[in-house]
User: What shape does this take?
Amino acid sequence: MGADFIATVQPMARLIEELHRLPGIGPKSAQRLAYFLLQSSADQVRGLAEAITAVKEKVIFCSVCQNITQVDPCAICRDEQRDHSKICVVEKPLDVLPLERTRGYNGLYHVLHGAISPMDGLGPDDLRIKELLARLEGGCVEEVILATNPNLEGEATAMYLQKLVAPLGVKITRLARGLPFGSDLEYADEVTLTRALEGRQEVT
Amino acid sequence: MSNPRLYSTEAVVLRKIDLGEADSLVTLYTPHLGKIRAVARGVRRSRSKLGGHVEWLVHAQMLLARSKGLDIISQSQAINSFVPLRDNLWRSSSALYVAELVDRLTPEGEEDYPLFKLLADTLQWLCRAHHTDLVLRRFEMHLFGRLGYEPELYHCVACHSAIEPGEHYFTPDGGGVLCSGCGGQALMVDRLSLDALKVLRFLQRSGYAEVDRLRLSADLSANIKLIMRRYVRYLLERELKSADWLDRLEREGLAR
Ligand SMILES: [Zn+2]
Ligand SMILES: [Zn+2]
Assistant: This one.
């Protein structure tokens, strides 16, 4: 039975169409996934369907940091042991994980849910920037650490935030942008090298 | 070169969009192949050799492999990354406007070497010019010239009489200036001061070095910007997204 035939059966066609909408899923992958689900047990499929629905019903955004959570405020924002005078600004919830894994940061976070991308028509109003500025108004925050991605969109976002935050008198820092660990100097580009030089440190 | 599937070209990256997990779909402007689209595999991984060599607005020497679908970038070495652009929101946003305009107005696969030169020069000047606005205006003027939309600035586009100092107008759909007689009756035209007309003519015939020495009043700058913007909007039949963004930065006092 060919994949093209499968796509002509109406419920399959609908599933393929829905899967195709997911990021990174092309028409071929969507067909493969749909066929896989068709062959899975009823319990497996129900489990997946419930997990998908539960995401929409049970996961909410933290009213403080905008990260995804089940309780509001989230565990990090409630934690009295953490340093509430520092906010690290990231693009998406997934970016919090690697920073937490370092165990080197004990402050709070702010999740923007995206980056400014002028060419895609994505502007500051599409991000949780108002919420960030509101957090800075109380005067308790001493440092904002910009940890957006080192690409055009991330840099535009960081530069824009810097201009908004600077007048509030809060210290602004940016994650050092140098050479990635495990990379080869030979392949480093001019932008990365310039910044790595700017961020060089004395060795003792 | 032994592998006939491979070819080498310089290119400026006009646009880069995510494709799948770690790939990017890029739009390139090249000296001899015009605008082409290609795939950069794995480029979004932090250890990719392509990394910053296939980033927005980078001018690079690339090796591409022909493939059934889009060509694949197999190597890239940045020639100029225009570093000063990247640390300034206004300058990098202006450069995005340049890239978007080239992308929107040029067809795929048509060689235009002078346009490639214009693009690379413009990005270079956006790094250091005193007046990035004037760089954009000169760029627009010369881009239109390359693409056959050069505005007529010496004769009335309706009655063809030589333009005399006095009242004149600019008509986007006529592609140039109107004399006082013709402009007075026309709809959808903008008043053009004598100084603005002189500046437009100057932009048309001068290089960036001369243009960067100009000092214009805010009113005159605004008049010229309005006229060029309306002309862009007329040619594209829509507003550029990067133009909206520049307007927003300006409104919020974040220009420069
Ligand atoms: Zn929180
Ligand atoms: Zn006339």
Remarks:
- Residues 6-81 of chain B form a domain with the OB fold (Dihydrolipoamide Acetyltransferase, E2P) fold (CATH 2.40.50.140).
